[in-house]
Amino acid sequence: MSEEWEFYFTSVNGQLASILVDVGIRETAPDSNKPWLLRVWTHFHDVEEHGLPSEAESDAFAEVEETLVATLTNSLDAVLAGRITTAGRREFFCYAPSFVGFEEAMSQCLSRFPDYQWALDTELDSDWSQYLNLLYPNPADWQQIQNRQVIEQLVQHGDSLEKERMVFHWAYFPNESSREKFGDEVKRRGFEITDASEEASPDEANSFGIGFERIEKVDWESINQITLELLELAESLAGTYDGWETTVEADAAESDSE
User: Fold this and answer.
1) Pair 78, 72: CB distance under 8 Å
2) pLDDT tens-digit profile of 73-92?
3) CB under 8 Å to 107, separation ≥6 — which residues?
4) Which of 72, 199, 201, 252 keeps 20 to 30 A from 48, CA to CA?
5) What is d(CA 150, CA 232) in angstroms, rounded to the nearest whole number?
């Protein structure tokens, strides 16, 4: 495991799901020394209407999870790639050199918590397809992760997120024509273009940058809808949407956040 973890919300089988994933192991995935996927399902006792555990259940389950992960990593030389929480249960995804001893180790581990139901599965996944295609964030997931990070900074600085304010956005494109088409479309949507330049960008293939702004809401639902629409528009023109920033709107402080 690395120390680079991210979580995001998505839909799995039509239900709300929370995914926690080790994004730090992406550079070394797939690991040919750990081709076996070991999965463990555990079921919660107390869940909210949306299928995720209550706060009390999350606290109570912490010991179960700590013990389970320690057994997998220490006894089976497995690496925890991530977990999915949905529909009243949590599923752990680990990659290991072998499945030998998996069932016995889990039986001994989880017998300490007889109140919880659990199930096991193993699969030869030498390509780490479950990690790369299911757990690892796609571009839209990454955008929501970045949105959450900006919102958390705003809240930490005393922002209630209730006040509309000017929000600044950036996007990059492979050529001037694509950038111009994008600019025309965002202007049609009420944005004002603030900058257009050709310089180093986060994406080497897209060096034609554009900055644009609009007064907007920045609560979770509003900013996700706005940014995912911009992401989709940029990608339709072979470009990349590069995020947003705004000012803190609080009684005592006002400063930039990005």
Assistant:
1) yes
2) 999 999 999 999 999 999 99
3) none
4) 72
5) 20
How many structural domains are present in the chain?
2
pLDDT reported for residue 200: 57
At which residue do the structure tokens 């955008």 appear? Answer: 143
First and final CA of the chain: distance in angstroms? 28
| Residue 8 one-letter amino acid | Y
Same domain membership, residue 27 and residue 41: yes
Which residue is listed with tokens 């220490």? 74
Q: What is the CATH number of the domain that holds 210?
A: 3.30.70.970
How many of the other CB atoms lie within 10 Å of CB of 69?
18
pLDDT at residue 183 in the model: 97
32-61 pLDDT per residue, tens = 999 999 999 999 999 998 889 999 999 999
The number of beta carbons lying within 10 Å of the beta carbon of residue 112 is: 11
Rounded CA-CA distance 210/231 in Å is: 13
Place of tokens 């299928």: 51
Rounded CA-CA distance 79/94 in Å is 5
Same domain? For 97 and 215 the reply is no
Strand partners, 216: 165
**Residue 148's domain spans which residues?**
139-257
SS3 74: helix
Q: Residue 253: is its pLDDT beyond 50?
A: no
